[in-house]
Design a protein that fits this description.
mainly alpha; Non-ribosomal Peptide Synthetase Peptidyl Carrier Protein, Chain A
Length: 90
């Protein structure tokens, strides 16, 4: 399970870099999204890519209010993806 979670973390980091148009070498889990200059339009693209690639929906209004760092976003996305996968197998 640990490897699967770290693989997912890496995939999500790559997605944030790609959709946020940020060099992946500039991203750490502690990076603040605003410091990476990820604009709201880029953020929407990240959320749309998460929905498209993993089938999860993250509400901009409710669930993102406390997201400040890349790790916050990764944790939220991972929780949603794991929840979605459990629902699919149930």
């Amino acid at each position: 399970m640990g490897t699967e979670k770290s693989d997912l973390s890496q995939e999500l980091l790559e997605l944030v870099a790609r959709e946020g148009m940020v060099d992946i070498s500039d991203i750490t889990p502690q990076s603040r999204l605003e410091d990476l200059d990820i604009q709201s339009a880029d953020f929407v693209m990240i959320l749309m890519a998460l929905e498209e690639e993993y089938g999860v929906y993250i509400s901009v209004d409710n669930e993102l209010t406390d997201v400040e760092t890349v790790q916050d976003l990764l944790d939220l996305a991972q929780d949603k993806i794991e929840e979605h996968r459990k629902d699919e197998t149930a």
